[in-house]
Design brief:
Helix content is 0%, strand content 52%. The chain is globular. By secondary structure, it is mainly β. A hairpin with a 2-residue loop joins strand 6 and strand 7. The strands form three sheets. A five-stranded antiparallel beta sheet has the order 1-8-5-10-4, with no helix packed on it.
């Protein structure tokens, strides 16, 4: 997996623009994939069994904070952090906050 902290984003000012900027998070070639995009809300105290699916998964924490279990490793995500991993690894969110956490989830099924 790759954990990408907000501080690692590459700031890009597109040529010839004014007031437009890009924060480049990640670029990967994913041939022959179906893409699924969703917003997941993790409520305080939420519990989820481990998930295992085929494909690759990219998650961006829009707001809040949460821990994320990837097999035996726990990573803490804060607003603006993202993580990329093979979804065949058992994975699930763990609530570590008193407020909702919102994840933008992009799954590349192959």
């Amino acid at each position: 997996h790759w954990l990408i902290r907000k501080s690692q984003y590459k700031y890009i000012q597109p040529h010839g623009t004014s007031g437009v900027s890009h924060n480049h998070i990640l670029r990967k070639v994913i041939p022959s994939s179906t893409v699924e995009i969703a917003l997941h809300t993790i409520k305080p105290g939420a519990k989820s069994p481990p998930m295992v699916i085929r494909g690759l998964r990219f998650q961006y924490l829009v707001s809040g904070s949460c821990d994320y279990q990837l097999d035996t490793k726990i990573i803490t995500l804060n607003t603006g952090d993202s993580v990329w991993f093979h979804a065949s690894i058992p994975h699930y969110p763990v609530s570590n906050s008193k407020t909702d956490a919102i994840l933008l989830v992009v799954i590349f099924h192959h």
